[in-house]
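Contributing new records

If you add data, match the layout below exactly. Sequence lines come first and carry their own label; structure lines follow with theirs. Keep one chain per record. Anything else will be rejected by the validation script.
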Amino acid sequence: MKQTFAGIIFIAVWLISCDRTNNNPGYDYFPDMFYSKAYETYAENPVFADGKTLREPVAGTVPTDFIPYPYTKTDADRLQAGAALVNPLTADAANLGRGARDYGIFCINCHGSQADGNGLLYTKGLYNFKPASLVNDKMKAAPDGEIYHVISVGQGVMQEHGSIILPDDRWKIVLYIRQLQSDHPEGRPDSSVTNN
């Protein structure tokens, strides 16, 4: 008889405990763990010795998907990058197509559709400094790594694009620039050079 009564009680408790509706979430055991006290970003926090909630990242940590780049915006590093970095991609249709697309997004406004430095920002008078020609003899002789480096960290007044263009896409832009250079043969006047 005791076993039957205990069985009925167990089944009743089991059925009641399985009835959890949205309006009655049940009982919380250890509510201090379930409803933890959250601190606002700039609020005082007694947990830390300096009393700040907003913490500095641990030294040596990097954001997710961040790829460290060992060179800085100096001429010495540009030359080192040119000697050390080799384009890992081939100039196939897919890579050239993506390079052309990205060039049209990130480069064309300054360097122009022919990469001769006559982009709309300069030709419309919105930019005081003439952007560099990417199809002159100097750029044709520059290693791929130097062009990649300049895209990554910038040069002169040109700002870095490494934070907004993925590494593979930077290499694809280099491939597309090489294609533009091959379409601009030796002996043909460079439109970025003006005759006075």
